[in-house]
Amino acid sequence: MLIEQEIASIMRFLLDAAGNPNPYYYSVPEKFITPAVYFPTPEVGTGGETFRTYRMEFAWFITFHCDTTEAAYALSHKALGAIMRSRMLIPLIGEDGKAAGGYVRITSASEKGVDTGVYQLYLTFVSRRPYDAAEVEAANNFILNMIPKSGVAITSP
Q1: 80, containing H or E segment
Q2: What are the tens digits of pLDDT across the range 68-111?
Q3: Bridge partners (DSSP) listed for residue 44
Q4: Which of 62, 77, 81, 133 has the maximum number of C-beta atoms within 10 A of its C-beta?
């Protein structure tokens, strides 16, 4: 998965807000370490915006995994609370993992239990892009600068 700036920024924000659970990006392995958060590829819809721009509408189903449903809820709820306290504005980060200036606005956020030990955070956001802009290459690597509780450094893809 190529990580766009908005997606990488949201990942970083949620990991920090939830206390840096173990992140998984492509799939959750059979024997994964909890607490964990899984960032699947978001669903994307498109549409016209103005005569000069179009929009990419992202819907993202992010799951928090713990040994108990209550613990998964606690992680998800920390993340949701942080989003709401930030007025639904997530600071954009650059490829170096540092603040780049600007924000991505979350348009809706909710959470629900989906299985034993699993809580889902559902986020939507919109990215507006000019029709005539040269194609911008998505970043392959963003540095998230984190050490999970297991003590082994994890680098995002």
Answers
A1: helix 69-85
A2: 999 999 999 999 999 999 999 999 988 888 888 889 999 999 99
A3: 58
A4: 62
